Amino acid sequence: MRNYLPSILLIAVFVIVWEVGARIVNTEFILPAPSGIGLKLWDLKGLLLKEHLTSTLLIIVIGLAISIVLGIALAITMTQSSVMEKTFYPIIITSQTIPIIALAPIFVLWFGYSIWSKVVVTILITFFPITVSTYDGLRSSSKELKELLLTMGASKKDIFFKLDVPSAIPYFFSGMKVAVPLSVIGAAIGEWLGAQEGLGYFSRRMMTQFDGAGVFAPIVILSLLGIIFFLIVIMFEKKALKWRK
């Protein structure tokens, strides 16, 4: 806790300033006080946690799972073939130049209000950091060690699993630490633009009712979700990379 004391103090100061400022302005529907958001969150805890949280959580998990499989597969494919690299890498980069928020309504037209329109948005946002980080990691393996393994009679399979993969693992987790918070954003964007349930949908519904505290309450849960998933990634990273200590 001592290591994070400056951050905790800064957040506390920010919340206090926010609370005082909101009370001075006294416009709850525009700038609700943190205390008001907390009370609203408590009042809606059953509805948000039992109904809407489950939907959002499912979107995040499915989107991340597909992004991990797709990202790792693309990274391996590009490192094993220069033709595949020249084919897919520009497409991967180009996919990130398209505003996702502009594509989300199109996905709603294609998939309706089902879960898959939100999952696709989440995948488009999250697969990029996983793919690029893993790809860079696979290419970062030491050439000297590779030459040493070749002189010792190692096959391409041995070099891949014993040199390339261990070299790529730290990069993969770096990509995951970027992708996890983005997955929460992707799910929220998808629900905001077209859904019948979920934390993003509930926040948009509260906005139409000019309920500022109701808008912020699901956002607080989304933020906590991002933090929890980030900590889970760090936990797995520490277990997988014990040698870095």
UniProtKB/TrEMBL annotation:
The keyword Protease does not apply. It holds the Pfam family BPD_transp_1. PROSITE patterns: ABC_TM1. Keywords: Cell membrane, Membrane, Transmembrane, Transmembrane helix, Transport. The chain crosses the membrane at residues 57-76, 88-113, 119-138, 178-195, 215-236. It is found in: Cell membrane. Residues 53-233 form the ABC transmembrane type-1 domain. Its main location: membrane. InterPro entries: MetI-like, MetI-like_sf. It is a multi-pass membrane protein. Belongs to the binding-protein-dependent transport system permease family. PANTHER family: ABC TRANSPORTER PERMEASE PROTEIN HI_0355-RELATED, ALKANE SULFONATE ABC TRANSPORTER-RELATED, MEMBRANE SUBUNIT. This is Hydroxymethylpyrimidine transport system permease protein. It comes from Virgibacillus alimentarius.
